[in-house]
Amino acid sequence: xxxxxxxxxxxxxxxxLALARPYQDRFDDALAxxxxxxxxxxxxxxxxxxxxxxxxxxxxCMDFLGVASSFQxxxxxxxxxxxxxxxxxxxxxxxVISAAVGPxxxxxxxxxxxxxLDLPRGxxxxxxxxxxxxxxxxxxxxxxxx
Length: 146
Fold this sequence. Notes:
mainly alpha; two-stranded antiparallel ribbon; elongated
């Protein structure tokens, strides 16, 4: 009963995560959904292993899962766990690679476009003004790199 309850709660939380998207970064949302999918898969495989215990249930392994023995069920669960971990590592590595070689991440809030930072002829400096209310600091100018 605990495995069924844990699997149900995990899938319910997965649905809430997919709908609510509580994190600001898309990558954090994807990572949370992926980790909860792995968790639900682990609970479901626990149910499968429990059904296939040796000499515990009469042919429940073949009736419910379609495998002949507890060894085959354990092998299937081990392959599934390796597959899920491999898929999670692939997703994380693809996100890291796309973030490393992707476009610049600084964008204007209003238009979501890259800021226009080209200097007109004759100008040598950009001027950046920033004010933080808690400290009262103002940003300074930065020389143009040549």
